[in-house]
Amino acid sequence: MATNGAARVVTLIATIVRVVCSVIAAFIVIHAVFVLFEANPQNMLVQFTAGWRDTFGWFTKNLFAPSDPKIAEAINDGLAALIWVVVGSMLSKVLVRLAPTGTTKAKA
To answer: Which of 92, 93, 100, 95 is nearest to 7 (CA)?
Structure first.
């Protein structure tokens, strides 16, 4: 019975990891869309998503540099978002595999 509760907790943590990584990726994608469609950089929403991109997507900043800076930013943001989704999914799967299983049966 105790392992069943532990398995639920680990599964819940895995779900939280996956959701948090997906939310981070979503904000980065929204920033990419804002850049691609030339949203006003002084807008609070654009600045908010740029902050998320700078905090969580810094590792792909200026990775690719095509001639059009909008395309470059969109590609780099999209890659950062993809990495967050993949890493979140992989971490979630690892956590679920580490969860204890309740396969012990009581003797009658």
So the answer is: 100
Distances (CA, A) of 28 to 24, 53, 75, 108: 6, 5, 11, 56
Model's pTM, two decimal places? 0.83
For the segment 91-103, what is each residue's pLDDT rounded down to a tens digit? 999 998 987 776 5
As a whole number of angstroms, the distance between CA 5 and CA 17 comes to: 19
Q: Is 65 left (phi over 0), alpha (psi -120 to 50) or beta?
A: beta
Neighbours of 104 (CB within 10 A): 8
